[in-house]
Amino acid sequence: MNKREKLVIDQMVNGENYYYRSISVDNVIFGYHNRELKILLLKPLGMQRWLLPGGYVLKKETLDSAAKRIVRYRTMLKDIKLFQFKCFSDPQRNKDTYFTTSVLSEMAQSLNVKIDNTHWLLDDFISVGYFALTEFSLVKPRGDFYAEECQWWEVNSLPEMSFDHADIIREALLSLKMFTYHYPIGKELLPEKFTIPELQSLYETILNKKIDNRNFTKKMVSIGLVVKTNEKKKIGGHRSPFLYKFDNERYKEIISNGEVLIF
Amino acid sequence: MNKREKLVIDQMVNGENYYYRSISVDNVIFGYHNRELKILLLKPLGMQRWLLPGGYVLKKETLDSAAKRIVRYRTMLKDIKLFQFKCFSDPQRNKDTYFTTSVLSEMAQSLNVKIDNTHWLLDDFISVGYFALTEFSLVKPRGDFYAEECQWWEVNSLPEMSFDHADIIREALLSLKMFTYHYPIGKELLPEKFTIPELQSLYETILNKKIDNRNFTKKMVSIGLVVKTNEKKKIGGHRSPFLYKFDNERYKEIISNGEVLIF
DNA sequence: TCAATAGTGTCTCTTAGACAATATCGC
DNA sequence: GCGATATTGTCTAAGAGACACTATTGA
Questions:
Q1: What phi and psi values does residue A31 have, to the nearest 5 degrees?
Q2: Are A96 and A165 in contact (CB under 8 A)?
Q3: pLDDT tens across B3-37, in order?
Q4: Is B239 within 7 A of strand D by CB distance?
Q5: Any idea which of A163-172, B105-114, B233-242 has the lowest mean pLDDT?
Q6: Which residues contact B195 (CB under 8 A, 6 or more apart)?
Q7: Alpha-carbon gap, residue A154 to A38, rounded angstroms
Q8: Most buried of A127, A211, B14, B18, CB within 10 angstroms?
Q9: Whole-structure pTM value
Q10: Cβ of A241 < 7 Å from strand C?
Q11: Out of B60, B87, B91, whose CB is closest to A59?
């Protein structure tokens, strides 16, 4: 039995001593690759539908650290930007009876743990939604005995989600959109060097609209957010785009000033 | 024994059957009067410090309806705009031992209820912060046997707050400020007819900065948010200001378009 | 040489932001 | 008349937004 299994067994047996009751955290982890915005999802053994990587909150930690801990476990990343965006509390949200009656109880059985109807894991939960931004290529999605599969899904073609996780994703996308109108974005999602068309494509995906490429470049350069390098990226049968970097000082400055970016 | 007391007794005895564990809601209720932004606070019998009107969440309701229910109880208002803005989960936030050891236990004693150390009310709570906007003059602050005092306090001269409620208020003010940069505000806080200087003063208070009065008027009128009436408000030894109304259609339009308002 | 995508400049029009003199009102 | 507050217009500068042709690459 590995460390993770031991932890889960202890969670089931003693969890209510050190976890908050009725509170969970769900993370919408955004990555960007090949001009597609992606979300990291997992699927427990025996389930048809997919889940957001989420978990419970230790009594000795904050929601932020719970979210960070869970994200770190699934992505192996230490430095990741996390944003609390909404709580989900519709009483109907917990009514995925397949999960509670089948998946949970089978898992309990396989781990040789007894859970009855008053077990804390069967309470109704209110979930706090976080979205996270990370560079796709740094992540090694990590499944385990609970999460049979753990992989990236393109935002516009997600699999069937259980609970209200489709709602949570919808809200996360909306929050990300609003966020993008008020703060620069990209440093967390793109590699260190990137091309303007890649950056523009990211903005277009998030904001869900076309942006004029001349105006976009003009703006990004004129506010000093990005800086051209001398290198080019060779990517196939057409003119090679220049690589750009973010001006980190300016990036922070724009965030702290709360300058509004309109496209 | 009145209805409210019965309810509180039942909460203490049977509450864990119908309330979520470890989750509460706290409301920062904003009102505006005499050019001052105010917050509704209450003080339980025997406490030195003040509290935000908050409460627990029924398992059969959402956080939004819990917040609305609690606000309605304290203000007697049905229609009030509520915004979830942040969760507060620092484990230290529950360490106001005076409240748990003295106030709660005395209240229990006076109501003839026993509570021991494992009682659900003594759990650590994570609180969901809401801010509410309401027209000051419509509110009848309601105290009761629990909240000895219930009254408005000017935002810039608040009394000592218990728990982390001073933090919650600080965050609420910040959220209100951000909100004001992105959505029109005023309809919820001002009477139906108001003067431009009143409206401007509201904005200056929330945004915490001076605004040029010519530019302010010009902007508000040019975007169609406010409409001049023929009436004037007679208020003392100087020129009488005109009364204005909000254009409700335009107000909604601006909200749904998410138009950015910069001052 | 063709298909695909990148790179680049100009003009207009709106509006943010700076700025101060005059009008009313009550005493 | 005086103290207090409300009302009102113009100018400038910045930038949002519309718009299309040329350059480069690899097959």
A1: -130, 165
A2: no
A3: 888 888 998 899 989 999 999 999 999 999 999 99
A4: yes
A5: B105-114
A6: B233, B241, B242, B243, B244
A7: 4
A8: A127
A9: 0.94
A10: yes
A11: B91
